[in-house]
Design a protein that fits this description.
alpha+beta, Arc Repressor Mutant, subunit A, 3-stranded antiparallel beta sheet, 5 helices
Length: 100
């Protein structure tokens, strides 16, 4: 049997993304972007009923870890999920919770 080659860097990056996502509000943000494709900071904090500073804080963490990407359009910054695979993780989380 061949040895499984483990790419430590890949695992570290995956763990770092998962750590960034492992917060109730950040899961809520990703869940929101899962259904809306792209939203402005204002739309995000209004829909989640949280402070703008709090939304910006979570969005920055998710962006820095490569979970979200942002695009400036005029005066607004729009956020979207960077990878389709990440939306599958959220779907999985939602399905896990539905089984109770």
């Amino acid at each position: 049997m061949g040895h499984l080659i483990i790419d430590i860097n890949k695992l570290e990056m995956a763990a770092s993304k998962l750590r960034a996502m492992a917060h109730p509000m950040r899961i809520a943000i990703i869940d929101l972007l899962n259904t809306h494709t792209k939203l402005s900071v204002t739309e995000i904090y209004e829909k989640l009923d949280i402070e703008q500073a709090s939304a910006s804080h979570h969005l920055n963490i998710l962006k820095n870890k490569g979970v979200l990407e942002s695009k400036r359009e005029g005066k607004k910054i729009y956020y979207s999920i960077k990878s389709v695979s990440l939306t599958e993780i959220v779907d999985c989380i939602n399905r896990c919770n539905d089984e109770h």
